[in-house]
Design goal:
Largest sheet of chain A: 5 strands, parallel
Number of strands of chain B: 0
Largest interface: A-B, 63 and 82 residues
Radius of gyration of chain B: 24 Å
Shape of chain A: globular
Strand order of the largest sheet of chain A: 3-1-4-6-7
Radius of gyration of chain A: 28 Å
Shape of chain B: globular
Helix content of chain B: over 70%
Oligomer: heterodimer
CATH superfamily of the largest domain in chain A: SGNH hydrolase
Order of helices and strands of chain A: HHHHEHEHEHEHHHHHHHEHHEHHEHHH
Number of strands of chain A: 7
Distance between the termini of chain A: 85 Å
Strand content of chain B: under 5%
Chain lengths: ~450, ~475
């Protein structure tokens, strides 16, 4: 009764070990002739199963039985929205913006004020005020796609542009805004740590740089397994496929309750904050137009940056420079005019980083620009930007954003190669626009590539 | 190092290969080094702790055997030393909080010292193994003379972190056997490892999402939902821990060692006592042998036995964690064990015919009632506080009334489509219960015990494919690691 077991489990087990009727070291089992093959492993269940598993993977690698859309991704993060919307877009873009939240903030705040409307950043990827300034300065038509995203590092920027090219959108000019955080962030130990990387590495071939991307041997091993094992490589896609199938069955068998308040994204993040962390909802990040008559608000984010700049990792710094050079190479190869811009940040933020380290960062950018003949501009003009131009220590508000875009357009016009590229691009798009107006609806249906 | 990590995927085959190419004499030292590497990969400093405890026990326990007049004193010293170590690491915060609350009730504001203690992984398990050794030696069982063997008994990596709690009489003799490599070890071991990982990754990790949502926000769910969530947790903790045990047993099997089983279809138990014979067997038998029986067991009257059960289970609850809700869970287990005894006593008193007690219907009802009693206990176990548990249980108590006007439309879990595990509960939970019954039925069938070779291969290939596809980037830790 109660915890009085009929016999001590351990005693039973000990007896079973002593009796040892199948395997175990206590007795040497006498194998009969029929299990002789077993002895040398030929009939070992595990060996045969492993051989079948490897053979099946190899076969699938060669035959690729499934055609998965690698742009599909279960985590709808910033990068996912950027490319989901780009693929849906019928427009053609001749300029692209790259950068972290500093670029996002400057461009979107400026646009929200210019258009006097609220912008939902999950779906808004344009830069209309910048387009207007470009058109005024260089003539023609400009359509910019904003590929910048919070936390974007040079490794992400490189993969982002590569992914854009995969969507058959090819910008003529790319403006890349960089800041020290992109190279020094202590919270990002490897390029793998960003939300963008998790999505983009499905789309970009990293064979030439995987040694740099992955720092830990485990990450490297994981990459090799993912690259060479078909099922592991496509695990997420099969997972999503299974999810769709199960969902469709569930919808038939147990449909969602009708007439009740539906379960939303907001309910989910309240119930399961850790589940798909980093995912954003179309209404989760909204920028409101700034009232020019209201004094701008400023919030001090020094503690956050103290953490970010706390333990700068030289290894990570070098890796991010490596990817900046990869981006330069990619643009040269694709004949894209790359413009690198040092983003404005406050002096207080530089103090947290250390002015010596900041100077080192700026000098490294300059050296890279000279060596690789890349137009690079330091727009961090302390005289031009005051605290009223910032939301916090690094992010420009609408006033700062306007100043930044004006300064950027002006400075680009002073560079011969950039001016030439922008003028040609603006005129080319203008002509295409005019031709598109002439086209009949029938022509749009043609399969002949334009 | 987690069993469900890439590190283990490399570590285990390397140790396995080295083990079988190493001469017999060097195998124990090899496994010992591997076990310390395994343990120290988490926090190197705690390697010293496990070594210190091993050395201390190895030196002190012989004093019990040698002493003629002071056997009990030496046993007391050894047990106390082990329990104090466990207490410092596991219960220091709990004790300080309890003292602070007690003083606060008396109007005294005590500024508690700031403690920087991190609970060493697996300490509860290896401390219990040391106590078992000391008590067995006190009872006249032989000493372990070889320090390396004794060290490996405590630190053997497959069972180091979350058991099963081994018995030295079963484990140590296996170390001295000159065993030759057999492919059966690989087949049986890998089958257990893959099955264990599948239980963890495919079932436990998904069910964990349901439990997390339900137990942190019970107000969001209806009474029927909360029962479903509790069932989900019941299966989550079972698959999590049973999965861990399978991987542990499978890993040990690769080296030709057998470690005890820990689970035997616990949710088909027909009463509380039966449940504890099927759930965490290595712990329940430890509690029986080294707590319940020394307290007097069931040798006294009904009250005396009830008292012993209560103390055993309350302390068993506290063993799971230094928190009030674990203590309450343990007390609850003690109470239902006592109630079960009293029920048996009552049926004897009322002379309920044997045909009724042994009938199929009685058995089925007993299984259903026991499962629900166990599930109520899981609410205390999983909820962060006793207050949350009570809130949940109060709501769950209204389920019988709510079921009168029940329709599927009322289920909150059906509204959630991401994660998909929520609506899937409606077929998963019955499926798992049926699987439990099916395995019980199949257990004594020859086909199930030793399936045809091709079936075994097919199952293993399927497991490999499923685990490759469904292994997430960062699977959560096993629940029993925290204990």
């Amino acid at each position: 009764m109660t915890v009085k077991a009929p016999r001590n489990t351990i005693e039973i087990l000990a007896e079973s070990i002593r009796a040892e009727d199948h395997v175990g070291p206590l007795t040497e089992q006498v194998l009969d002739e029929s299990t002789r093959k077993y002895k040398d492993g030929r009939r070992s269940v595990f060996n045969v199963a492993l051989a079948i598993f490897i053979a099946a993977n190899l076969l699938m690698s060669f035959t690729t039985p499934f055609d998965f859309d690698k742009f599909k991704f279960p985590y709808e993060g910033w990068a996912w929205w950027t490319f989901n919307d780009l693929r849906k877009s019928k427009a053609e873009y001749n300029v692209a913006l790259l950068g972290s939240s500093l670029m996002v903030s400057a461009v979107n705040n400026s646009d929200a004020m210019y258009m006097q409307k609220e912008l939902n950043l999950a779906n808004y990827h344009h830069a209309v005020y910048f387009d207007k300034l470009l058109a005024e300065k260089f003539g023609g038509t400009f359509k910019t796609y904003n590929l910048a995203g919070p936390g974007q590092m040079p490794s992400d920027a490189y993969m982002t542009l590569q992914t854009m090219l995969k969507t058959h959108q090819r910008p003529d000019v790319v403006v890349y805004g960089v800041a020290p955080r992109d190279f020094y962030d202590s919270s990002m130990i490897t390029p793998v740590d960003t939300e963008a990387f998790r999505f983009l590495h499905r789309l970009v071939n990293l064979d030439d740089s995987w040694g740099k991307v992955f720092k830990s041997p485990w990450d490297k091993l994981n990459f090799i397994l993912e690259r060479d094992c078909y099922l592991y490589q496509n695990a997420l896609d099969i997972h999503m496929l299974a999810h769709e199938k199960v969902e469709s069955v569930l919808d038939k068998v147990f449909p969602k309750p009708i007439g009740k308040k539906q379960f939303t994204y907001w309910d989910r993040i309240k119930l399961l904050p850790e589940y798909k962390a980093g995912e954003i909802h179309p209404l989760a990040v909204v920028v409101h137009p700034q009232d020019p008559n209201e004094p701008p608000t400023f919030s001090d984010n020094t503690p956050e940056y103290r953490e970010r700049y706390k333990n700068p990792d030289l290894h990570m710094y070098k890796i991010q420079h490596y990817f900046l050079l990869k981006l330069v190479e990619l643009c040269k190869r694709e004949r894209i005019e790359l413009v690198v811009v040092n983003m404005p940040i406050t002096l207080d933020n530089i103090r947290v980083l250390g002015s010596y380290r900041y100077m080192g960062y700026v000098n490294a950018l300059r050296t890279m620009a000279v060596e690789h003949k890349v137009p690079a501009f330091d727009l961090n003009d302390f005289a031009l930007y005051t605290q009223n131009d910032y939301h916090d220590g690094v992010h420009l508000n609408a006033f700062g954003g306007n100043k930044f875009l004006h300064q950027l357009v002006n400075i680009m016009s002073g560079t011969f190669s950039t001016t030439l590229a922008l003028e040609a691009s603006g005129n080319h798009m203008e002509r295409r626009k005019a031709l598109a107006k002439q086209a009949t609806p029938h022509e749009f249906k043609t399969d002949i590539p334009l | 190092m987690l069993f469900n990590s890439l590190q283990y995927l490399v570590f285990l085959p390397v140790v396995f290969l080295l083990y079988w190419i190493t001469p017999h004499k060097l195998r124990v030292p090899l496994l010992l080094v591997a076990s310390y590497l395994f343990y120290m990969s988490w926090k190197p400093i705690y390697g010293i702790l496990i070594f210190g405890l091993t050395l201390g026990n190895f030196l002190l326990v012989p004093m019990i055997a040698k002493s003629v007049t002071r056997k009990k004193l030496w046993l007391g010293i050894v047990v106390a030393a082990n329990l104090i170590t466990l207490g410092i690491f596991k219960y220091a915060y709990f004790t300080v909080d309890a003292i602070k609350s007690g003083l606060a009730m008396g109007g005294i504001d005590w500024r508690e010292p700031h403690l920087h203690i991190i609970l060493p992984l697996g300490i509860s398990f290896f401390v219990f193994e040391f106590i078992h050794y000391a008590v067995e030696v006190y009872r006249g069982k032989p000493l372990v003379k070889n320090f390396l063997n004794f060290s490996l008994f405590a630190s053997f990596f497959p069972t180091q972190i979350a058991g099963p709690i081994k018995r030295y009489q079963d484990f140590i003799p296996q170390l001295d056997i000159k065993s030759k490599f057999k492919w059966e070890y690989v087949d049986e071991g890998m089958h257990l490892i893959l099955m264990g990982l599948a239980k963890k990754v495919l079932l436990a990790d998904n069910l964990a999402l349901v439990a997390q949502a339900g137990f942190t926000h019970p107000e969001q769910f209806s009474s029927v939902d909360l029962w479903l969530i509790t069932y989900a947790f019941a299966f989550q903790i079972f698959f999590d821990f049973a999965g861990y045990t399978d991987v542990a047993r499978g890993s040990a099997m690769l080296f030709g060692y057998k470690v005890p089983i820990n689970f035997n279809l616990p949710y088909i138990a027909s009463n509380a006592a039966d449940f504890w014979r099927r759930w965490h067997i290595s712990l329940s038998t430890w509690l029986r042998d080294y707590l319940f029986i020394p307290l007097g067991g069931s040798r006294g009257n009904r009250f005396f036995t009830a008292r012993n059960l209560f103390i055993t289970m309350a302390l068993g609850g506290l063993w799971h964690g230094a928190a009030m809700h674990f203590l309450v869970w343990g007390v609850y287990q003690g109470v239902i064990l006592i109630l079960h005894r009293e029920w048996q006593h009552l049926t004897e008193l009322l002379r309920v015919p044997k045909t009724v007690i042994e009938s199929k219907l009685y058995h089925v009802l007993s299984v259903i009632i026991t499962f629900h009693f166990v599930c109520v206990g899981w609410v205390f176990f999983r909820a962060d506080t006793v207050t949350i548990a009570m809130k949940m249980l109060t709501k769950m108590a209204s389920a019988p009334i709510d079921l009168f006007s029940f329709s599927l439309n009322q289920l909150e879990v059906l509204k959630i489509r991401d994660p998909l595990i929520f609506p899937s509960l409606l077929f998963l939970i019955p499926g798992l219960m049926i699987a439990h019954l099916a395995v019980n039925w199949l257990n004594d069938k020859k086909f199930y015990q030793r399936p045809p070779w091709a079936v075994q291969v097919g199952v293993m290939v399927a497991l490999m494919c499923l685990l490759t596809i469904f292994s997430p980037d960062s699977s959560p830790r096993f629940i029993y690691f925290q204990f």
